[in-house]
Amino acid sequence: MSRSVSSFFRRIGLVSLMTVAFTAASVASFQAVAATGKASASAKKSGKSKSKIHKASAQAAVGDEATGAKVRKVVIVKGKRRVILVERGARPMRAAFVPAAPTLGEAMGLRATPDALALRSSVALVMDQGSGDVLFQKNASAVLPIASITKLMTALVVTDAHQPMDELLEITEDDRDYERNTGSRLRYGTMLTREDLLLLALMSSENRAASALGRSYPGGRPAFVAAMNRKAHELGMNDTHYVDSNGLSSSNVSSAMDLSKIVMAAYKVPLIRQFTTTAEHTVNANGRTLHYVNTNRLVRGGEWEIGLQKTGFINEAGRCLVMQANVHGRNVVMVFLDSAGNLTRFADAVRVRNWLERSPHVEAPTQAATPLRNVPVSQPATVLASEQTHGT
């Protein structure tokens, strides 16, 4: 449009006037110049003199006259001209596309690992709970962040401590998530029993509840985390390291091989079994009624026979799931780490269940697996990535 207007001005010998107009104008001056073009075309059609064209151009220049940090902008509203003030050089804000950062498993290339069951999880392990035989494994010794799977160890340390479960604990600002700035429905000052906090931490993965459990341990959080790592060592979880009680840090790491051990250890504690498989629960928090549901949709669906479970998610870990379940009369432990989407960990569990139901006497899938008791954790037989340093 500006090119045609300039051409018009050159034809009528008003180059100098156009220069003045464009020097004074901001981005919005194009509309004013368009008005000039209209006035000029109208004058040409009706045979009016060049002086009127000059007048219209001058008015357009004044219409975008700079006024300090702002410029005047001529706009047309319902056929009438209006003058408004806008910031000089202002541009509409546009949302930039920022691709999501890859999980650690994705960065390691684990998601590209093919497997016989076409799972969407980077890491998977299926174990016969009775014999300890590994029925299926995929990158089972890769050490990755485990997110809220950490809370299973929190529960073991809490139950081992034998502190009063009916003791009232207060949620304080010390329980705030400074790691990721996530929110919580448990407000500061909320008073709940240790039992309720443990239930919410396991069933609904409540981070402030898990934080308060660690803070109220004798010696505080440092002593609690030390107890978590001691317990991991006792269980032979040599690839595991904990730094907090809620799993928000990506420095809480483990492998599928190690997590199968904590699942079997936690399964021996009836309270943990009960709390992890509770479908929903309501608490009275300082006069407020709060309703919570289980983070595992398979528990809520009621079609599975699940004895223990825990979900987890942070960006670095992807979607995670550990479960003990009875499939076709067989007790199995399942571990899925770094699943690619919201529902893929649950879909992978269904794929494993379908496979086991089709082959109830299976000892190993097409991808050769070796009984866990005969395989050193540091050197599994069929693992692509066996060693990673602890940390983010």
Folded structure, characterized:
This protein is of the alpha+beta class. The chain has 2 domains: 2-87, no CATH class; 105-374, DD-peptidase/beta-lactamase superfamily (Beta-lactamase), CATH 3.40.710.10. The protein is 36% helix and 21% strand. The chain has helices spanning 2-12, 15-24, 29-46, 50-63, 104-107, 150-161, 194-203, 207-215, 220-234, 256-267, 270-276, 297-301, 344-358, and strands at residues 66-67, 70-77, 80-87, 121-128, 134-138, 144-145, 168-170, 191-193, 253-254, 280-285, 288-293, 306-314, 318-327, 330-339. A hairpin with a 3-residue loop joins β12 (306-314) and β13 (318-327). The chain is globular. The model is unreliable at 1-68 and 365-392 (pLDDT under 50). Residues 115-339 form the Peptidase S11 D-alanyl-D-alanine carboxypeptidase A N-terminal domain. Residues 1-34 form the signal peptide. It is an enzyme of class 3 (hydrolase).
The third-level CATH topology of the largest domain is Beta-lactamase
Q: What is the overall number of helices?
A: 13
**Order of strands, widest sheet:** 5-4-14-13-12
Q: Please indicate the count of domains.
A: 2
What is the strand content?
15-25%
First and last CA, distance: 55 Å
**How much is the radius of gyration in Å?**
33 Å
In the CATH hierarchy, what is the architecture of the largest domain at level 2? 3-Layer(aba) Sandwich
The proportion of residues forming helix, as a percent range, comes to 25-40%
- What is the element string, with H for helices and E for strands? HHHHEEEHEEEHEEHHHEHHEEHEEEH
CATH class of the largest domain: Alpha Beta
Structural class: alpha+beta
CATH superfamily of the largest domain: DD-peptidase/beta-lactamase superfamily
Signal peptide: 1-34
Domain Peptidase S11 D-alanyl-D-alanine carboxypeptidase A N-terminal: 115-339
GO molecular function, one term: serine-type D-Ala-D-Ala carboxypeptidase activity
Region (Disordered): 364-392
